[in-house]
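Below is how a single chain appears once it has passed through the pipeline. First comes the sequence as given, then the structure the pipeline wrote out for it. We keep one example in the README because the format questions we get most often are answered faster by looking than by reading.
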Amino acid sequence: MWFNHVIRIHKSTLINVEYLWRFITRGAMIICTHNQAGVDIIIPLCLKTEKLSPKTVSAILIQVKNASNYGNKIKTKLFEKLCPFDLGVFDQDATPRPVIRMVFALASQESEVLFREADETCDEFTAFDIWCAGLSCFRSVDEEDLASPESTTSRSPTVRNDPDYVDFIEQLGESSNGKGRIVTGLRERRMMSV
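Resulting structure:
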């Protein structure tokens, strides 16, 4: 597994081993189209000991849930939606490689990592299912928070007090020939929007 950037695909037909191995060579992790059935993020992977090709590639299939009704209890139906055959990762007649299926229940009140039992996996392929509940710095947004943009952005982790960040911004201002504030503002907004 190797990636150094994220791309959003707009065609679900690109979620196939014929393309996934190319995403590895590009160093890309995939964000799926909006409202894609079952899968939100795909990280292509391949065994290091084999040559990279459509026959040797597999994937980590991830579904992300922000709703508070997804807690630290595994909901098997979410893993069923991550079936690599139904998603088109593997063709129906292919012999698939093992896949890793993950569900992130970000709004869970309790943080926990759970693994599904091996006997609960599908017979058509081998899957390692992982349920990741909670996130230490995650808080959901309600109506009161939407009253002002400042209240929403104040929940985001900030780097403005980090000494390395301050040094970086100062160097940026010195090297920008008088345009330091404009460039700094653009860079800060990009960093905070991630």
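The mean pLDDT is 75.

See the next section for the split statistics.
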